[in-house]
Fold this sequence. Notes:
The protein is mainly α. Helices cover about 60% and strands about 10% of the residues.
Amino acid sequence: xxxxxxxxxxxxxxxxxxxxxxxxxxxxxxxxxxxxxxxxxxxxxxxxxxxxxxxxxxxxxxxxxxxxxxxxxxxxxxxxxxxxxxxxxxxxxxxxxxxxxxxxxxxxxxxxxxxxxxxxxxxxxxxxxxxxxxxxxxxxxxxxxxxxxxxxxxxxxxxxxxxxxxxxxxxxxxxxxxxx
Length: 180
């Protein structure tokens, strides 16, 4: 099985290392799967999410509990009546589209596309920080699915920051080119 494949776009072929491309979009795929699961199970079927325990009567009122229903059903679980998981699905789809634009787009537009990807992921970090603080300090409940999405967003930001700090090209990374 070959680890790279040629992608034809933008007037030419780009050799792509599948594992490296997967590295760049894996957290977005995870986030999309998790947010879609929440949308389907919690919102569409009104069912309890797996791995989210319900608090017991003996749980102290000021202790932190794992309770996805409390988090997702709170006033913080939606924005203008739209569940945040809908927005999370959109976030991860746009994130994957931006990675593809950076990796396969026109070389002269690389800097703008990369800048947009960096700002997009930075916005994700900001929103995650806000929602984590809401869960920990206001609701005193955490959602396993939300936490998984926060981790995916943080790892995504670390990945894009690596390319920004070390001035590495994502195009070179996915093609397997050696950079000195």
